[in-house]
Amino acid sequence: MGKVKPGILEEMTIDEVRAFDAEVVVWGIGSTEPHGPVLPYGTDYWQCDATARRGVVRANDQGACALMYPTLPIANNANFKAFPFACRIAPRTLMQVILDVIEALEQDGIRKIVLLNGHGGNTDTIRATLREHTHRRNRCEGAFVCMAFYPPPPGIIENPSDHGGEGETSRMMHLQSELVHSEKLGVFPIGEIALDTLKDPGVYFVQPWELHVPLSAGGDVRKSTAAKGEKLINHSADCLAKLLVELSAAEWTDTFPFKPSPDTETDL
Ligand SMILES: [Zn+2]
């Protein structure tokens, strides 16, 4: 097998793939868009790809049979369109891409699929796609598909931000420090909504991010470190590995992923 890590599709030959006989597939759905003056465009893609890789390797070390599908680098970024080259496809297109990949995996005999979400702009679309998949497939006639996204555990990030903040900066310092412009670490402005009622968490609208984060990253990133980034990536990879180990070992039943239905007949 040489240096090939079993379970990383891009690194395997057809003989290795056939012998591997995957039980569960994880597919990272990343993104490529601006992340302020410190971080590269590929930040979401690389974080997602690294988490999927580590998760699969760790799961397979624990006896799972998980296959990593190639991470998707372009997804939803309509809110970023005022910035140059915020790579994007429409939400309806992303839905169709995901549905097509699910169908291809079903044709490859896969019943268990994990979509690893690497970008906040994709969350609603991935959830809607799971609804669409449930609409077009009767239970047990198609693959079981779930979305995974692991927020940072408490106690690591000192100054949270929703884009290009301390968490992402720390992760990139750990993964690709040569692409991080540490000399530009600072406090990046966050725009304020003028209407108070629109700040209510019960109200939703799509924010124009050139107003929300005018530098394309927001918040105080000065406390970012590679050590924090390593903890964050490893936390997500360990959570993913646990999920893959359990899914891989789980027997496919006609009530998957539930226990058999309790007997509803009453003896009167
Ligand atoms: Zn990001």
Helix content: 25-40%
Mean pLDDT across residues: 95
Q: Output the radius of gyration.
A: 20 Å
CA distance, first residue to last residue: 63 Å
Instruction: Please state roughly what percent of the residues sit in beta strands, choosing from under 5%, 5-15%, 15-25%, 25-35%, 35-45% or over 45%.
Output: 5-15%
Number of strands: 6
Structural class call reads alpha/beta
Sheet with the most strands: spatial strand order = 2-1-3-4
> Count of DSSP helices?
7
Q: Detail the poorly predicted runs.
A: none
Bound molecules: zinc ion
Described by strand count, sense and barrel closure, the largest sheet is:
4 strands, parallel
List the secondary-structure elements in sequence, H or E: HEHEHEHEHEHEH
Q: Given the C-alpha coordinates, what overall shape results? A: globular
What does this 3D model show about the protein?
It is a single chain. It is built from seven helices and six strands; from the N terminus they run αβαβαβαβαβαβα. It has helices at 14-20, 43-61, 91-107, 123-136, 166-175, 209-212, 226-249, and strands at 24-29, 66-72, 112-117, 144-148, 187-188, 219-220. Strands 2-1-3-4 form a four-stranded parallel beta sheet, sandwiched between helices. Helix 2 (43-61) links the parallel strand 1 (24-29) and strand 2 (66-72). It is globular. The chain starts with 13 loop residues before the first helix and ends in a 19-residue tail after the last helix. The mean pLDDT is 95. Zinc ion binds next to helix 2. Zinc ion is lined by residues 35, 43-44, 163, 168.
Which helices and strands appear, and what pairs or packs with what?
Blueprint lengths: L13 H7 L3 E6 L13 H19 L4 E7 L18 H17 L4 E6 L5 H14 L7 E5 L17 H10 L11 E2 L20 H4 L6 E2 L5 H24 L19
Helix pairs in contact: 2-5, 2-7, 3-4, 5-7
The chain binds zinc ion (ZN).
Zinc ion (ZN) binds next to helix 2.
